[in-house]
Amino acid sequence: MPRRVADLFAMGFPILRPVAPMLSRPATSLPIGPGYEPKYDGFRAIVHRDNQRMELDSRNGRSLARYFPELLDALADALPGRSVIDGEIVTCASDGLDFEELSSRLRPRRSDPDKSKIPAAFVAFDILADGHADLRRRRFAERRAILERVVRERPTVVITPQTADPDAAGSWLTHFNKEGIEGVVAKRAELPYDSGRRVMVKVRRQPLIDCVVGGFVPSREGLPLVLVIGVYDRCRPPPRGAELRPQC
């Protein structure tokens, strides 16, 4: 006798792994109208939970669970028993997010091997499945409401803030660069979860530096591609401070 669809779902994760995350396309200014969320300096990750089974996949489908074992218990405590959650793995230092510490988890430390690691945290910003329900074709506004209802926030598992105010979103671009907020993502309320497609909009902070331009080469589109060959080193003490140093 053929198994029911519900029986097949009960045998594994609600959605088959791996899942390509929904992506964003770059823009130079924030669009008016959609909701806004911070863009974090971390690792994109999709959590698949089936009761006691937990998997943590990168945006390329690589398993990250063994690199962040402390997250598994926290996620088990915060997420529904059967769910698929999209979010970002970050590490929080005293002065903001520490991407260098986060990156070091993926490679052996050659120095200070006994140095304690900063605990990783998970910032959830979308839900793809809850129980047996595949939510990917539902509107983002509905998925967001479900996410807020089912995730029990913990010190290292939180839901990303959201605002409909473009001025508040703009302040994230200007006031939180040292905290590891590298930009803003805009999402429309009616947006389904389109895996692998660039349907969101992201605006990154554009840092400004004093530099000397040595020349440029034309790009294929006819626009100049500037080559920066020197920047001022203002961190060195006099008399060598504020001098040019070459850039590769």
The number of domains is 2
The largest β sheet comes out as: 7 strands, mixed
The CATH architecture of the largest domain can be named as 2-Layer Sandwich
CATH class value of the largest domain: Alpha Beta
Determine the fraction of residues in helical runs and give it as a percent range.
10-25%
Specify Rg, calculated over alpha carbons: 21 Å
Total number of helices: 5
CATH topology of the largest domain: D-amino Acid Aminotransferase, Chain A, domain 1
Mean pLDDT: 82
| Secondary-structure-derived class | alpha+beta
List the secondary-structure elements in sequence, H or E.
Answer: HEEEEHEEHEEHEHEEEEE
Span of the ends, CA to CA: 67 Å
Query: Shape from CA axes?
Result: globular
Uncertain residue segments: 1-10, 110-116
Corresponding CATH superfamily of the largest domain? DNA ligase/mRNA capping enzyme
